[in-house]
Amino acid sequence: MTPADTLSDLFTLAIAAEDAALAFYRELARSFSSVPEVSRFWEDMMRDEAFHIQELTDIRNRLSDQQLREPADPSIMKKAKDGLQRFGEKLDLKNVTTLDDAYEIACELEYSEINVVVQAMITKLVPFAVKSDFILSQIREHVSKLDDFSKSISDPERRTAILARHH
Q: What pTM, to 2 d.p., does this model score?
């Protein structure tokens, strides 16, 4: 761990990861705009990411400067750095030709260590159990949307047949 690995740095990484996911989902909504049901799904995922960013920002803003300068947990910091690097490469529309490609990348993202990092941060840093439980339930609901979407377009062949149109 370097001296720069503070809680503030961890928030910066977590918010950057959520922002990258938001941008990816925005582009997927545009790429699948010819299929309104699919485009709406990606827009919904994008709105969830905006909520996550706002919640992380609110939590960070409630911490004192002294708290933000505290050392971050090295294992959580490593997961955040590794996850952000890995998804920096993955979240590229060049990797998306079909809806199935988009769905698989979204699953990797949502079930990645980045979400483990965000959940650990919320559990540790949100002082009110009710608020913490609410945020964590929102994250679980967000991830379950992928499962629900998979059931609505359950046939991988159908997902493969829906092509992305990059703008």
A: 0.83
